[in-house]
Input
Amino acid sequence: MKKRLICAVLLAMGCVSVFAQQKLKVGLGNESKAFEPLITALYKEIGLEPEFVILPSERSLRSVDTGDIDADMGRVVGTAAAYPNAMETTESVLEIQLLAVVKKGFQPEKLSLADLKKYKLGHLRGTKMAEGVVKSLAVEATQANTMQSLFQMVAGDRFDIALTTSTAPVSAFPEFAGSLTTLPHPLMTTRVVHIMNKKWADYIPKFDAAVKKLRADGRLAKLLAAR
Output
């Protein structure tokens, strides 16, 4: 009887340990690695642990949809609508700006979205914010597979403007400091939400609660400032 009791206790402890250490594969691009501490802190609040997987932007979303990975670091609100097995959190983890990266000396210094129709455009493949703007303007854009190649192409006059987001600034690539600059006025601003496969639907309200908690106690602002 005593042995059975000990076994039962050990089994229960093992189950709790497994649950507490449950890992979810979270897709992200190299340009988003600075946000790993933020997602790690939010997951810790809800008893999960992220295992980060570097993937191209579009592939990451498709992998969430197919269930090959469990979540995507963060996307513009509304992105998950195109992926039937993906769900968005309600709470935003941050705001994101669409920026115009150009060669130094570019004029004018302020552009509207409508102004973009006058120029040749490029963006990182899978960047939904840029893709949405290009589609709404009914124009063509060159797509690059990496941020490095995107900036190389605009520096080499393949196009006039690289549409990038504030999560992947050109300042993170010092090799372009002498040739490229970001126009001072963002083209647009929107919210970024976390995306999870629907099998984790029960965790989305918990994630939202964690965002609210970290925002209220100041940790969210500190984590964003530290990136």
